[in-house]
């Protein structure tokens, strides 16, 4: 293996000597510890330089057994006199060195303008490392600034000019102030030897690739194609807030009516929703006692802002009317009463966002989804401010109403001063009451319906059920027996599954404990036509199956074909299609299970068509193995 170096330029103007021993290349070859067996020969060009060598050719050994060939061309006019030779030199070079004297600016300028563009064009289609060496100590580091003296101005090549030339060629720039052991052996020699090693590595790599490409096999191993991508299931956006907002608009299952002080009806509402966001309403509707809250500002707000008609606080339960008469609440503040409709619309339409807002300084910022909900709630708060300002022209009245809203929604025990309550003036989020509908899930507090299931009872709230489930809305508001019943039986579903279903209605989230429970919850969601819950269960099943390693798929008692049957029966088309692809992708595992025989003819054809690995690949693999085994029977030498 060999390395070819081509050097262009005359650097001898940088030193007083004018012989071969003063050249950069000769000095390096003579002093480097890695170089041995150096030989040189002068090649003449009879047409233009009689007696002057066009270039000197050096041959030596480097790194022990690597042949180093160097062509040193001191005259640039080789590009003019012998273009063919110059092109062959550049084309066969592994490394190019361009050298010049820092005290010969006219020659440097000629090289830069005339010959460097030629080298640049020659290197256009190849990546050969280039080293630019500025040789010598500048005679005048600081030119005379006298306006009458021009003797030394522009006589030296500056470092910036050399660096600019290196940038144009994509080269490495070196300044060699002398031909000492440091500059030649360690500085120039270190860079040159680095590029030699890179060139040898590249040649070795190309040689290995060439050997591999020429290696011939009787039978090539088959290429296993990638399995088909499984179908992607898209989730459904939440409509939790819109469901609750529609509950306020449609006035279904109303159990609270607000009145002005002159007993004019203002708006109808629902205790369960109001209590889920405010301790004031919990205190008002006897969900909590003053001893439970222990916050004088909340107790004072409930007493000064509202008054409950004592005759309707505890209505006598009537079997014919399970909900009972609504509670009548009188709003004592006329300005607050005037804006109450906008305030309730704010609470209902952004219940989840309201739960994420805060109204006191908190050292921790919310993260992720909570942060987004906080931003959404802040935006709704600004809309509420605008709506109140439209109704109340006096800024003082607007501020008083907003302060009352903040006091209603505040967290017990938190300071709620005028400075810290303004969400639009603070750079940190502010916190509301930390309650939610989850607090009332599976509790008898404010419950107005009891489900009987598997010999047990589950309390619930009609307002939440009607808002979140159209089937239950029709059941409780139509001419069905459940509309006037306090006890409602549930069939065809287990208690745990029904509790998970109710938890989703209350919280807009669910977390099944297993694939089978997720499938049961999917069936329940299909029964009550909750499509988003179906999609959540589908995604859970898919995620769990995808995370199963192959060994677990082999040993599991879970029947994928049974899941497929249930998905098809309950109109879960996305899941059933995905399960078919899943069986086809894991064909070698499922084809060995007894349940595989339960697939219908249509399903079997689909699986065979999309199976991985394909039958063609398995046949090619068998042929290749037979070939390899047959080759082992023959003597390698013979």
How is the biggest beta sheet arranged? Answer: 7 strands, mixed
Strand content: 5-15%
Low-confidence stretches: 14-20, 44-52, 147-151, 312-321, 354-368, 416-434
In what order do the strands lie side by side in the largest sheet?
Answer: 2-3-4-1-5-6-7
Total helical segments: 27
Radius of gyration (Å): 44 Å
What's the end-to-end separation, in Å? 32 Å
User: Count of DSSP E strands?
Assistant: 14
Spatial shape: elongated
Q: Give the overall average pLDDT.
A: 81
Binned, the helix content reads 40-55%
SSE class? alpha/beta
List the helices and strands and how they pair.
Blueprint (H helix, E strand, L loop, with lengths): L1 E7 L15 H8 L3 E11 L3 E14 L3 E8 L4 H4 L1 H9 L3 E7 L3 H18 L7 E6 L23 H11 L2 E5 L4 H34 L25 H11 L5 E4 L5 E5 L1 H7 L1 H6 L5 H4 L2 H10 E3 L18 E5 L2 H5 L1 H10 L1 H6 L11 H24 L3 H15 L39 E5 L2 E5 L1 H7 L1 H8 L9 E3 L5 H13 L7 H13 L3 H16 L3 H6 L4 H10 L3 H13 L1 H4 L10 H10 L4 H18 L6
Parallel strand pairs: 1-4, 1-5, 5-6, 6-7, 8-11, 12-14
Antiparallel strand pairs: 2-3, 3-4, 8-9, 10-11, 12-13
Describe the structure.
- The protein has 638 residues and is of the alpha/beta class.
- It contains 27 helices and 14 strands.
- The strands form three sheets. The chain has a seven-stranded mixed sheet, sandwiched between helices. Strands 9-8-11-10 form a four-stranded mixed sheet. Strands 13-12-14 form a three-stranded mixed sheet.
Short description:
47% of the residues lie in helices and 14% in strands. With 638 residues, it is an alpha/beta fold.
